[in-house]
Amino acid sequence: MEAKKIRSTFIEFFQSKQHHYVPSSPIVVKNDPTLMFTNAGMNQFKDAFLGNEIAKYPRVANSQKCLRVSGKHNDLEEVGVDTYHHTMFEMLGNWSFGDYFKKEAIEWAWELLTEVYKLPKDRLYVSVFQGDAGDNLAKDQEAFDLWKAIVPEDRIIMGSKKDNFWEMGDTGPCGPCSEIHIDLRTEKERAEVPGKDLVNNDHPQVIEIWNLVFMQFNRLADGSLKELPAKHVDTGMGFERLVRAIQMKSSNYDTDLFGPFIQALEKKSGKSYGKDEQTDIAFRVIVDHIRAISFTIADGQIPSNNKAGYVIRRILRRAVRYGYTFLGFQQPFLYELTPLIAEYFGDIFPEVRAQQEFIARVIQEEETSFLRTLDHGLKMLEGIKAELNEKGEKVIAGKTAFELYDTYGFPLDLTSLIARENGFSVDEKGFAEEMEKQKTRSRAASESETGDWVFVHEDTGVEFIGYDFTETYSHILKYRTI
Ligand code: ATP
Ligand code: MG
Ligand code: MG
Ligand code: MG
């Protein structure tokens, strides 16, 4: 089954169970001080769960664009190194707002996976919250009994609070969850070690696919729990992982979601995927990152030196450097992958098709500007490595990392990554101190400038929608279609 069909089947399945389909909310979150990017399907329903708003529909399903590169969920360091954590991914979800609860959620999840998608039952494991005496929380007996009616007891795993209890924050709705994991190892490997022992153990072939959260309590400020008057269901399934399981691949990157992108890169670079681990990581990082970058730009977040904009710039520069060092790209290349994004995602996420030209231009400019200094920065790093080797030292000074940042545009995480690849580390505290010093210097400078001649208002003819944006991208603003 192709990825597109797998996605539409999910939606249609829940529509047949009276769910209302809602489109994905933007990946970029505005006006929420607690969140920069959408990191789960439930984000857009937060107010319904908190009771601030009455849900429009009691049953909802969707495919949500998510980004996990900052805050509570930061998977960036895993991406490309493993084959199942992405920066940007789609989370398929179904919700009940005070409507159905555990029974339906569990039975439908099982029906969809085993009867519709036909995943082999003997490869699936489910987990149930085991309880937590310290927090006065009981085992989720209800979920356990429901699962026991469907799967043999030895496929049920009891899980700790870390994996099987969900909380929105220190206070608010919370509850136990049940997860579904799949064992994608070979028959031989499965005969040697039981899959049950590998669930939640970072095994690359025994992976979590679906999380069913049962919101049944409200955590009060004094830490106590109160039963919620209306109980809710919030589920999230990684689409790329589901596709991999259905297509029986050993990596998300071997599915038809990433295949066309890998092939395009192979053609462009003249290198093959699947021959050398370091080159493969570069392939995976690039085909992952181009999605994150394109989707966020389509939703209005332009790379910049601030907050969310800097997150995107860091991802982009990381991809550029992987391409430069391991695939031999000395000229901008990322932007040429954007037509594929439009082609493969334009039907479900029309914004990436509508903004295709704009996305490509922003990326191309970013690449061009970073490539201008990348080579110098890498040479400087080579020199530093040689120096440290001579002295028998292993730590790159904060001041040096700051110079790389300030003069050559190397985000700290990029310098740390290159350092790690070579057996070094970076003095991140020292870097932060240098950054602070620079901020103090520029504050002092701008204070002394206020008495001078300044243009307070210059009529540039473009609508002001953020400093970095107009400053850097005003000339391509016309390509933005909405
Ligand atoms: P993991 O333990 O693998 O990091 P998680 O427990 O952090 O996953 P949840 O917060 O439960 O993930 O999210 C629901 C589902 O989203 C997961 O079951 C998984 O299929 C998928 N998922 C989570 N993080 C990622 C990611 N970085 N890339 C792709 N899919 C992901
Ligand atoms: Mg995680
Ligand atoms: Mg997990
Ligand atoms: Mg989980």
From TrEMBL:
Top-rank taxon: Bacteria
Alanyl-transfer RNA synthetases family profile domain location: 1-482
GO biological-process terms attached to the record: alanyl-tRNA aminoacylation
Essential cofactor(s): Zn(2+)
Cofactor note: Binds 1 zinc ion per subunit.
Catalytic activities: tRNA(Ala) + L-alanine + ATP = L-alanyl-tRNA(Ala) + AMP + diphosphate
Gene Ontology CC: cytoplasm
UniProtKB keywords: Aminoacyl-tRNA synthetase, ATP-binding, Coiled coil, Cytoplasm, Ligase, Metal-binding, Nucleotide-binding, Protein biosynthesis, RNA-binding, tRNA-binding, Zinc
Record flagged with keyword Plastid: no
Primary role: Catalyzes the attachment of alanine to tRNA(Ala) in a two-step reaction: alanine is first activated by ATP to form Ala-AMP and then transferred to the acceptor end of tRNA(Ala). Also edits incorrectly charged Ser-tRNA(Ala) and Gly-tRNA(Ala) via its editing domain.
Domain remarks in the Swiss-Prot or TrEMBL record: Consists of three domains; the N-terminal catalytic domain, the editing domain and the C-terminal C-Ala domain. The editing domain removes incorrectly charged amino acids, while the C-Ala domain, along with tRNA(Ala), serves as a bridge to cooperatively bring together the editing and aminoacylation centers thus stimulating deacylation of misacylated tRNAs.
Name of the featured protein: Alanine--tRNA ligase
Lineage, uppermost ranks: Bacteria, Pseudomonadati, Bacteroidota, Cytophagia, Cytophagales
Annotated gene: alaS
